[in-house]
Amino acid sequence: MKFEQRIPRETSARLFEEAQQYFPGGVNSPVRAFRSVSGPPLFIAEGHGSHMTDVDGNRFLDFCCSWGPLIHGHDHAHIRDKVIDTVRKGTSFGTPNLLSNQLGQLILDNHRYVERLRFVSSGTEAVMSALRLARGYTGRSKIIKFDGCYHGHVDSLLVKAGSGLATFGTSSSAGVPENVARDTLVLPLGDRDLLEQTLTEFSSEIACIIVEPIPANNGLLIQDRSWLECLRIKAWKHNVLLIFDEVISGFRVGFEGAAGLYDVQPDIITFGKVIGGGFPVGAYGASKEIMDFIAPVGPVYQAGTLSANPVAMAAGLAALELCLEPGFYERQASRTDQMATQIEAYAREQGYPLHVPHIGSIFWLAFGTERIERADQIDPDNMKYFKMIHHELLQTGVYLGPSGYEVGFVSSAHSEVDLQEAVAKICAAMDVAFAA
Ligand code: PMP
């Protein structure tokens, strides 16, 4: 398949060339390099509402939404105004501030699954801190994670399944020591027997089970509630902590995230993305009893120079105020459902092997027609279709994240007209991809 460029990309291409002299691979986060799709990455100049414009003047309907944080789209007036008001008063003091109290209160008053929070500056930092807390609280070192879940670039989670049944992990990145990886046990999602076997064999050594309750980093692997309930019950039974990594699902599928959607109470929840309104914010939360293990009250050390800085707190507060407007999540979910259903109906009519798993305002273009619940059910060969669809969509002004393993996000800034336009263009892109 030849990828014919019908939009100007010269300025992006030139800037990308230049960027390679400054940054490894020209980027500051790997997937931005567009390695799994066609052409150089686009340098985005600005974004407003549901659209962003690149340095060559191309305008795109954006379904990447900065990888999830922008639940209200780009440059939302309420967020912008609150941020600008805050910036005018100084950007960081390294002291407690009123805005962090306000954001803390807003969250805790509206989220039944956490009693205390600690703000940090990224999802990775939230997960790293939550693991340390779980280890400090239980006095144990091993953790269980699941194949197909991503938890940021934390050493002990950059681990893939090794060989064997109850598998000790092996590192999936250079620089992660094998003795760190060995403390991570990697299991397939949904395998209850293997989970029980592993917990029985190692229970005196296991600090926690960590899971993305809605795995959304390796496709969208929607799980049954009964699986999450099983994790909860087994964690109680074996006296280990259950961590829900809700960096994507938190404040996205509902204010209470997946915990609320499925009504399953984890011991610790990690947050990121939406919580910061487009600024670098993460958080982790738990019961008061568990959170009192954190310094300065408890023995588990965790700190941050710019943690809970007022500007990021202002953005998060403004974003979450908008999320609490009546009907916000219902509207997001029903519009996303409508879009996904229309795309799927077209694929079915045409006999194209594609379906669109979706939950809340998260969707994924999945190849094949069978439900996909585990990472190993994704056929990497099908990524050639994604590459073509992605390319075709860029030519027609729709921006998806540059990998077929990434999910898309609908924001409240996407209008009905935007969504109809997206359906038509995605269907047209399928025609090109599946005809090739
Ligand atoms: N956990 C999950 C579930 C995530 O999706 C991500 C980021 N995609 C992270 C952790 C890491 O967050 P960050 O990129 O902000 O460090």
From TrEMBL:
<comment type="subunit">
    <text>Homodimer.</text>
</comment>
<feature type="modified residue" description="N6-(pyridoxal phosphate)lysine">
    <location>
        <position position="273"/>
    </location>
</feature>
<comment type="pathway">
    <text>Porphyrin-containing compound metabolism; protoporphyrin-IX biosynthesis; 5-aminolevulinate from L-glutamyl-tRNA(Glu): step 2/2.</text>
</comment>
<keyword id="KW-0627">Porphyrin biosynthesis</keyword>
<keyword id="KW-0413">Isomerase</keyword>
<dbReference type="InterPro" id="IPR015422">
    <property type="entry name" value="PyrdxlP-dep_Trfase_small"/>
</dbReference>
<protein>
    <recommendedName>
        <fullName>Glutamate-1-semialdehyde 2,1-aminomutase</fullName>
        <ecNumber>5.4.3.8</ecNumber>
    </recommendedName>
</protein>
<dbReference type="Pfam" id="PF00202">
    <property type="entry name" value="Aminotran_3"/>
</dbReference>
<comment type="similarity">
    <text>Belongs to the class-III pyridoxal-phosphate-dependent aminotransferase family. HemL subfamily.</text>
</comment>
<keyword id="KW-0663">Pyridoxal phosphate</keyword>
<dbReference type="InterPro" id="IPR015421">
    <property type="entry name" value="PyrdxlP-dep_Trfase_major"/>
</dbReference>
<dbReference type="InterPro" id="IPR004639">
    <property type="entry name" value="4pyrrol_synth_GluAld_NH2Trfase"/>
</dbReference>
<dbReference type="InterPro" id="IPR015424">
    <property type="entry name" value="PyrdxlP-dep_Trfase"/>
</dbReference>
<dbReference type="GO" id="GO:0042286">
    <property type="term" value="F:glutamate-1-semialdehyde 2,1-aminomutase activity"/>
</dbReference>
<dbReference type="InterPro" id="IPR049704">
    <property type="entry name" value="Aminotrans_3_PPA_site"/>
</dbReference>
<keyword id="KW-0963">Cytoplasm</keyword>
<dbReference type="InterPro" id="IPR005814">
    <property type="entry name" value="Aminotrans_3"/>
</dbReference>
